[in-house]
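Lecture 7, part 2: worked example. A protein chain together with zinc ion.
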Amino acid sequence: MFRCTKCGSEFPDFRYTCARCGSALLLEGAPKRWEPRGAGLWRYRSMLPVSMSISLSEGNSPLIRRRDSSDEVFLKVEGDNPTGSFKDRGTTVVISDAYNRGHRTAVVASTGNMGASVAAYSAYANLAAKVFIPPGIPEEKIAQITAYGAELVPVEGGFSAAVARARQEAEAGAYLASTGLNPLFIEGLKTIAYELFEQMGVPDKIVVPTGTGGLLTAIFKGFRELSALGVTDRLPQMIAVQAAAVAPIVEAWKEGTEVRPPPEGATTIASAILVRVPFNGLSAIEAMRRSGGFGVTVTDHQILQAIRALGREGIFAEPAAAASMAALEQIEIRGDERVALLITGSGLKDPTVLLRKDL
Ligand SMILES: [Zn+2]
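Predicted complex, written out as structure tokens:
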């Protein structure tokens, strides 16, 4: 059953968004069985609502202990997925679903990584892919999207306008693969929780770079499912990190208000989390509250410093991916607490940011 994250309406069958208020849906109800088997993301197929058709061997990303820290801090390096970001986890599930349902075209609105991921998996599935992108996307990401043969459609007016265009195409029959607009995407992302659990048990704190709020929502959902099945009796504290200039989720969490977009023109080098209207914002805030978590913001300068700090430990992260590392100094680690930082995408996605002299 799919439940609306805003008005609570319930729908027995798969649909993209709430028929009543248009908000994001989450799949509810007990999965299933905890029976990890095989390798990679589909090792957790017993916990997933879609059967595997299209996979590029995503998941099973490394968990690396930070060298330069007396605290137990672990880096979950999601840039090692097939297209260089965590998005591949959601994409293998939604494009398998599109394929299983007999669709011929997948559409997506993207700040870059999602578009590259959907383009790659659609190519492998022999589906046409159409990617709607706002201005300001790094050229490396645009090149990657076109390398997979997708149709790239630039949209004026930001990510929200790109989302509106993708939804129009979906109404005309294409499969809507956008994160936040397809609850099955969250199902793929939640496997990060299962993997962390197998790699290190339940972390005390998980620090998540946050744009749409989908990743944070998904990781907490994964741990809640493990808890509901009696696999563990612990839940991690969920910590959202946003760029200081574009932080609608963290600000709504702090002030206890509705999620409101930042001022027009506000921007950040962390383009992968530059989302003014976060579609999974409500569910992310709920996960932060229920887990005793919180939100922090980081400046572009701090992000750049964090890219360099990660580099000195052998990991190259894109700006959004380094936001978790940048947030670390604002997070109190008590005693023997263990912390996982999500490093969401590869530095090869946006390498020239390091050459900027103005930050
Ligand atoms: Zn609703």
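The first strand starts at residue 2 and ends at 4. The chain has a mean pLDDT of 95. Keep this in mind for problem set question 3.
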